[in-house]
Amino acid sequence: MLKAKSRDSWGSRLGVIMAVAGSAIGLGNFLRFPAKAASNGGGAFMIPYFVSLFLLGIPLMWIEWTLGRYGGGFEHGTAPGIFHNLLRKNRFIKYFGIIGIFGPLVIFIYYTYIESWTLAYSLFSLSGKSAFITEQGAMQAFLKGFQGLERNRYFSGIMPAYLFFLSTFILNTCVIYYGIKGGIERLCKWAMPLLFSFAVILLIRVLTLGTPDASRPDWNIANGFGFLWNPDFSALKSAKVWLAAAGQVFFTLSVGIGVILTYASYLSKGDDVVLSGLTAASTNEIAEVILGGSIIIPAAFVFFGPGNIQAIADSGVFNLGFVTMPLVLNKLPLPQLMGFIWFFLLFLAGITSSVSLAQPAVAFLEDEFGITRKKAVGIFAVISFILCQPAIFFLKNGVVDELDFWGGTFFLVVFATVETVLFAWVFGIEKAWDEIHKGADMRVPRIYKFIIRYVTPLFLFVILGTWFLQEWLPIILMKNAAEADRPYILFTRIGLIAIFAVLAILVKTAWRKKRAQEEKLR
Amino acid sequence: MKAGGWVFLVLSWMLILSLAAFCFFRVFSKKELK
Known about the structure:
The complex is a heterodimer. By secondary structure, chain A is mostly helical. Chain A has helices at residues 13-24, 27-39, 46-72, 79-86, 93-96, 99-127, 136-146, 159-177, 179-207, 221-229, 239-252, 259-264, 274-304, 306-313, 317-330, 335-369, 373-393, 399-426, 429-436, 447-476, 486-521. Chain A is 75% helix and 0% strand. In chain A, helix 2 (27-39) packs antiparallel against helix 11. By secondary structure, chain B is mainly alpha-helical. Chain B is built from one helix and no strands. Chain B has one helix at 3-29. The longest helix of chain B has 27 residues, at 3-29. Chains A and B meet through helix 1, helix 10 and helix 13 of A and helix 1 of B.
């Protein structure tokens, strides 16, 4: 028989806000946003960005907080149980909820490895191992050597990277092991202020760069900001720019993953979700637009100049974070300390996100199988550790990109669409509106009733349709993949189908057990 | 940086900071979790 047990809970309101903000604030805030803004109209990018934030991001945030708290009332912390309670008549709806466990698990598999690079680089900076490299080629060789992609004068194999992965994985497991209040909340309550302090230190450093090379007076910090913020209004005519802004808002707020559902399920029925959700979203925006938008691109402009900056902005997240930024910092006084601050900031952003990615799977085992947290964390640690291995050893074969596409892009949009339709149309907007406002500390403006019902779902369907035709179809058909990488990509897909199938079997088993238990009690 | 750049920077920062200030002010003046 399943044991009835009390669920974990948050210790304070600030704790849950910091945890949700911590989950949302990740590497993308400091690396993806500035690159996207610079490549999509500069200041003018902020028009579609804010439109997407208010029509897509914030409504989705409220939907997930509300659904999570609603599910928590039935002792369900993940989407299968929450969706089942929303629509009890339908026996298949719980299977759609699997995406809310599958997505975060898949992201966790590769995200922990990338997070471990930031921990490694923060120590490499502090120890001086990478702090004195000032050539772009050398810095790229350092990264490739570390990742095990080539043997060079910096690294002779993947072992250092693997040891840092092990340390990061153990750290994550320890945090989850201590639970919501004792682990995740405690971590986020010190990690978030520290992250913001580090970002402010870097911001001040960047703002005071001035014009370091007097022979190049145009290479100055004001023009660096100008590169990011000068508006190009012609970009607004392009659908690509609007989609890029919607995508950025989507990914930055961590909506559509399933993480917010799980975090909010640890709230009590009368706890506010309106103000708390908005506060977490606004905290994320400070980290993204104000801090993220003011560090890497303006600093890179000052040292690499207007001729190279566009190529740098388009060079990808890893190149920006692990090659360009350390090169910039290494040209400044105190390169070791500044490098440490930059990479440890990224590590804090990473770990507060990765623990949130682990939580849905752990909550699923606890809630639906009635097992203890310690046992659930043990099972999760063993399985996820095994699943992490292909991402580490087959990085060069496109495995991480493939995992990111399915877990971190495709299913995010699908899941957000499913939960929005369920919330606004199946559960019903009137009931949904009442549910949002239970215990609310502020009223949601009435216009949002219309937005949640019509605009947000429509927005999501447009994104889903356009991305599918324009961007996803070539990826699904492996059109851009190298011939040699295709077997690895195929193998990854088979693995992902297997994970999904196992989760479906687990959901079926859990519900069969519950039904048997209910029949026994009758 | 051109004047347009400054306008977008200042307006974006002000919007976000005002939203955050409004939220945190209300959070700290309202009740804790039950």
